[in-house]
Amino acid sequence: MRYAMIIEPGERNYSAYLPDLPGCIATGKTVDELRQRMTEAVELHLQGMREDGLPIPEATTLADYVEAA
User: Fold this and answer.
1) What predicted TM-score, i.e. pTM, was given to this entire model?
2) Where exactly are the structural domains of the chain?
3) Per CATH, is 6-51 categorized as 3.60.10.10?
4) 29-42 pLDDT, tens digit each
5) Is the pLDDT of residue 19 over 90?
6) 41 Cβ neighbours under 8 A, 6+ residues apart
C-alpha cells in the first residue's frame, strides 16, 4: 500500500507525516534520510496496529500540485 507523505522543511531538517496514518511521523537531515526513516516508521506503526487488533486504514489521500501566477 502507498500512503501520501507530507514533507515540511525545517531550519535544520525535514519532517513528514502521513494523513492516512495519524501519529506516524518521521524526521531526517535530508529528504532521502526522511524517506528511509518514514518507511521504517510506517512498518513499526502498522505492526503496532496489527498487534493491537486495529484495522489498517486504506490510503485515500491524494496529492497534487497547482500552478500559481
Assistant:
1) 0.87
2) 6-51
3) no
4) 999 999 999 999 99
5) yes
6) 24, 25, 26
